[in-house]
Every structure is written in structure tokens, then in C-alpha cells.
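Now for a concrete sample entry.
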Amino acid sequence: MSAADFLDGLDDAGREAQVRFAAEWLDDACAAAVAPVTAERDAALVRADAAEARIVALQGDLVGKDEIIAQLHARIAELEAGEPEPVRFLFGGATGGNGDPSLIEAKAGVPLGVRRTYFDYGKITQAVTMCRDDIAAGRVPYVSFKVNTSWTNAAAGAVDAVTADLAARLAALGGRIMVSIHHEPEGDEPDIQKWVQMQRRLAPFFTAHANLEFGITLTGYHQREDSPATYSLDTLWPGDDAGIDFIGFDAYQLFGSQAGSVKSWTDLPKHIEWYGRWCRAHNVAWGLAETGISDDAFTSQFASRAETWIADTVEAIRANGGTHFCYFNSGLNSTTTWVITPGKTSKEAQYLAALRESRED
């Protein structure tokens, strides 16, 4: 409600001082209601408390006093509840085998928004150290772990103690951290439902801490709208009640992959639209946890698409509610040239431009 609307509702507009006070209070309350959760908002709360004391002091002299106080209490409740912070789009990715991204960051002039790293439960100390360093550098760590036992054992509690300790150590770092257990599970063990059960069991250890986000990371290829049910999103989803904060899809532009044998252009925006639609229905955040484009794409009949591929993909993710883009700048376990090689294609220029733009949000 604006000050003008409020004043229009006063029965005794002739008492100038009271009207002026009501206008001052309402403007303060309206400003406070949209203030961020900062010292500005705290100051607005102090002003609101003072306004309530002044209104009460007027006793019966102010027309509409009870209505004003009721509105003030409602405003204070809104303020104390706080407004959710806007979600910042995270742009970044993996570098080599958990390599140092500082070189490309120096070229961009800004740090990665998110850094993908990969560990197992035998390297928890190294993982915690790397997450600490990422937070200090202004990056959000997105770290995957393998549990070093079978899904059946993990689902039955075999790694509960080590997982609880890991979550506590990560939480103690203080910054936002995204965690995933056993990324790209498709085909790794015979019974995928044991992986689902493992996610349900381990998720609470991480979601018990306010700064940790727990998600599942899938290939993306098997979760397309027209993919078989074996590894579909419905099949692999641990449930809306499982505490899953996000889904990461490792979805690539596959042209030129498989040692150059893939000659068709992947319609990634089509799949991205499906990921977004499914995730909205389940109220879960999502993004591309790995992605990339081959060097061959830049000298193919699809070269014009390749020249804007990173910006186009980011735009499609954001348009469909996605929250992160992670480029796989690595040759590990790769069947083509995902790596960003300076001067070879426009990949580096595209990447740097998108990284800078993401940091302007």
C-alpha cells in the first residue's frame, strides 16, 4: 500500500499532524518491507518499533490507530521472516584433474562462479582443503565424491560415520558448498535403485547444515524426455521428500565426440527445456554440471552455431530456470577435444565473456 492509498482511507484527514505522521510511518514501512536482509533492513525495523511506540502514545487521538498498528505488526513479521536472496547464476566448471583455474581467471579478471572437483572418500582432507581455498577465492565449490564401497553397503549405513564427519568438516568452512555423491551412476552397478536408496540415506547428513546443498548429478543423456525409463528422471529421483537441493546434468554438445564419429548436432536447448520443466514440477534447482563442445564443431557445417554456443547454452539454461553452467575444461575420460585451447577456436573468448557477464549479475 502506498502512503497516498493509506491517507485516502483515513476518516479524519483534517488533523494535519496526525496525517503527516501516518504518511511518514507508511513510507518507512513500505521501504522496509522490500529492503534486503542487511543493516538497512535492521535500521528499518528499529524505525518501525519507534513508530509503533509513537502510535501507542497517541492513545485514542489518532483515527484508525488499531488498523495502523495491525498493519505495522504485519510489516514487522514480513521483515523478520526476511526475503529470500535472489539466486545468483553460477558460471564456471572443471579444469583438468582438479587443476588450478587461476590462469583462466586471470584472463577474465574475475573468479569462477562455481568450480567442479572430484574426489573419493579416501581423499576427504584434500577435498576439504580445496573447498576452503575455493571459498576464499570467491568460488562456490561443487564437489563430487565416490564412497569407496558398494551402493548396497552405503544404503545400509556403511558410510554413515564418515559421511557425517565429511559434512561437518565442509559445514565448518562457512561458505556455500554444493555436494554430490557418485555422479553419473548410470551403468556403474547392476541395481540403480541401490544408488537411489544411497542418496536418500546420505542426503540428510548434508542438508542438516545451512551452507551445504546436496544434489544428484546425472549424465543428462539418459534423462532426455524420450529416453528409456531405465535411467529416466522419474526412475532415478530419490523423491520430493528426500532433501535433494539440485540436479546437475552432464549434458554435452556431442557433435565430434566418440573420436569424431558423431556427425549430428545435439539439440541441447530442447533437452534443457525438458530438464527445466521436470525440475520445476519437483521444485528442485538444476543446471549443467558438465558440458562442452568439440574443436571439430568449429570447422564443421555447424561452425556458425559453434561460434555462439556457450552464450546460447547459458541463455537456454537461464530461460528455463537453471542456476549453473559448468564447462568441462579437461581431457580426462574424454572422447573428443572439450579442452579450451587458447587461440585454437573461439571457445576461450566465449568462455571469458560469459564468465565476466555472470559476475555482473
